[in-house]
Write a structure and sequence with these properties.
The chain is of the alpha/beta class. It is 36% helix and 15% strand. The strands form two sheets. Strands 4, 5, 6, 7, 8, 9, 10, 11 and 12 form a nine-stranded mixed β-sheet that branches. A three-stranded antiparallel β-sheet has the order 1-2-3. β8 (252-254), α9 (264-269) and β9 (275-276) form a beta-alpha-beta unit. The radius of gyration is 20 Å and the shape is globular. The two termini are 24 Å apart. The structure holds magnesium ion. Magnesium ion binds at residues 166, 199, 201, 230-231, 256.
Length: 385
Amino acid sequence: MENKPVRITSIEAAPLVGDTPKGGWDAEIKPEDSIHALIAVYTDAGITGHGSVYTDGRLVQAGLRVLEPLFRDENALEPQRVSEKLHQNTFWMGRGGTLTHVISGIDIALWDILGKATGLPVGQLLGGRYRTRVQPYCSLLMAHPAEMHDEVARYRARGFRAFKIGWGPFGRRDDAKLDEAIVRAARQAAGEENRLFVDAGASDAHWPQGLKWAMRTAEMLKAYDVGWFEEPLRPDAIDDFCHLRRVSPVPIAGGEVLTRRQSFLPWLSRGAFDIVQPDVTKVGGISEQRRIAWMADDFGVRYVGHGWNTAVGLAADLQLATALPNVDLVEFIGGSAYLDGITEAPFVLDAEGYLAIPDAPGLGVRLDRAKLARYTPDPSVLFRA
Ligand SMILES: [Mg+2]
């Protein structure tokens, strides 16, 4: 193969709106709010890459304008070098925030392009495929017990064998009996043989609980065989996380609000997490997520990517899941149109509730223009020839 640069000619963003799922947030998300945007990276070779960003589409569009002089004419076949150039040269413009989120989407799209140009799936380009399928856990918002039971049962009937319940009333009513009743209902609906995880969502606005609540609640969760306790403390409370991890009978998970690999260093070196959960669509993309996941591996910390996601974000999670030795889960939002309703072929669970990891070139998912027309004002920005 001739090694000729493939130049970036332009990058466009399309906000996803109209059917945005609730987040369980204190100030709840409305269907017309944009919290996700898709990105298209165009090249002079006619190869287009797609990426996904977890933030308001207006911020993504503004971020692309700021970054344009740095990415224009860059070699799209060198994702990690180009993304690092963008990080290093925007140091004083709010690193870790919008620009880091936007770089994440660009980076994902560049890996997609590299895969399409070489005919290889991204997981192989990341160093090799450890597995061909992975278990998605169905991520659901907490609800009052009867409703929680029905919700978990509905997704179990669709074939999921792992579930995470989070946010909503949990921990927010100062009612330990209610918290336990929600978890009990979810466990009953999930079945003894399936996996259940609990996410307090303490990165929500004005999280009211502290370390003692988290310690008591961790004991309660143990009785329901909960696989991890996620964001049980405010996202900056590193000392309390370190203490909780040592005393909790269930594994402690967190890190979804951290961005940039450097932010994870103190959390890993001080032993704050059993499971680290960076979000590939915010943290800096596949290049950054891969480095965090391998760093965690060296600390003996499990990596399971956070993915409150789009189909493109999930595709990136799947490629990362194959390229690391010990990844057994990806997050899958239950009932999101942006996950299930924007690609040519939907994600399909196998008989054991696993997802195949695509081995087609690049990310291995194809966006559907007609379907996307329902969720973005101008889908053509993602499909220019
Ligand atoms: Mg979470």
